[in-house]
User: Fold this.
Amino acid sequence: MIKSLLDWLDHRVGYRELLQEAMYERIPGGARWRYVWGSTLTFTFVIQMITGTCLWMAYSPSATTAWESVYYIQNEMTMGWVVRGMHHFAAQAMVVLMVIHLMQVVIDGAYKAPREVNFWLGLVLAQIVLFLGLTGYLLPWDQKGYYATQVATEIMGSAPLVGPYIQQLMQGGSQYGHHTLTRFFALHAGVLPSLLIVFLGLHIYVFRRHGIHAKEPVAPVEGMFWPDQVLQDAVACLAVLAAILTATWYWHGAELTAPANPAESYAAARPEWYYLFLFKFLQFEWVSQMGEMLHVGEAFGAIFVPGAVGGVILLMPLIGRTKFGHNCNVAYLWVVVGIAGILTGISYYEDWYSQTSEGIAFRAAVEEAHRDGHRVVELAQSPTGIPPQGAAILLRTDPLTQGPKLFAQYCLDCHQPTSPATPFQFPAQAPELADPAHRDLVRFASREWTRSVLTDFGQHFQSLSGITGERQEAAESILDGTMKGWSDDNRETLQNPANAADVEALIEFIYAQSQRPDALPPSDPKVQRGQEIFVSGEMAMGQIDACVDCHSMHPLIVDAAGQTVLAEAALSEDLQPILTGYGSSDWLQAFIANPSSHYGDTNAMPGFSGQLSPQELELIARWLAEDYYQSAKH
Assistant:
């Protein structure tokens, strides 16, 4: 019955004749592994088509939904990270396979007559593949892709006369935005794949017309495409698939950094790795000097030199008509690939290993982009999810993300970390509060901070001695003031081993006022014991001066509804410094805005109410108070 069905189908469409022509092509010299590269390229393109179609079904191309839809694919869609990873790494594989295939064609002389047209069709396909990589890089709409694509389009814009118009056409206007994304998506998912299919069909047609070009001398044996070469092609394709799946598994899909933010610079803006050689070439001073001398600017290195190199490759079928010309073509291609590889290696080394300011800034920017990328995923998976304004707003309003940046801008010169990434020009003028490079670790108002203030106040605030000018007197009054005397007078009692538990209780009571995630509740016996010591000063062995003698304090209590609130009855009041809510976000906002409101005249810190907006004050304060969303696995 099956034979009858197949006979009927063959009579209607003639599939047997088509299979005979497709599968039983003669191969002079027999099957060889060197012939597999064209098949592996076609195979990776098929992977791209299948995975790209799956991604297309979940992708939403707009400035407020692109990153969000890629996040959904990567983190929520069943096996989405596998599909996205395969699509990403298959694109990388295509570039590598394309270079190998080009070199194999040139070395074997498969570009010579009558195969010139097929060679030129292959060059067109190579340009389409590279352009597919360029347009796909932007689609996640993250920091990395956003700024890297800007670099690429600026190179386009350097072309003489038509460059600015091409750049504007690609961008969808004079600025990057929604229209840039939709145009790149249309090119990547529609125009370029269609062109590639057309030219790939022509390429295969012309290839089959002239057959495989066997590298001389040709072995006397002769084989057929089926099954000899098909078997080797299949093994090579499986090896490529294994490499793609391994990379996908190892990196758990493709990278996704923080959502694109045009208002925030990105020092790690680089094109994809296969464009790095051109990026590095444009950085050479002599290249820009030649451009200025020839009055063509950046177009010299970005357009004319690559155009000349590509022009020679385009003319290879004509140059290679003689044996000497063919040898020149092979040598030329090796030199071009070698130089491109060296430039890529130099660029990679400078970015990832050099200790130059540019390399350090690059690595810091990459680390920050990855950190923000992980953070925005954490926020997107919070109970509130992604708001209608898009995921970018999650980072803009996140204290853990923005607090360290604002702190580095306004506070870091005085409150320097003990182990800075780069040395400061001037010495610190205040204690270390936190290090923006390690934003999860805040020292201010921590248990260790409180212990240091209590037991060694003078050393803790020693950095204030570096203050000069109008704030010097206030700094000296702190260093020689009442709290310094209290710490010195009570140090022996506080350091007595018999009082260790009571000291811990006092610290826990003060720390509980910040309401940080790891603080003990006000009802905890240790906190209650600390409150007793705060009021009376009585310890297991000896007594310290009571804290209520100098500090205002409304402690936290647990009300009838089980909520933690400030007690109406004060332990002490009308005293400064004020310790009510010490270390909490509310306390910090008021203190940073106007330190005198908490510390009176004995204060060496300037107020920031005129420099920081209320929102910025809140972001810094909530970061220092650890008052931000943290997942259970944080």
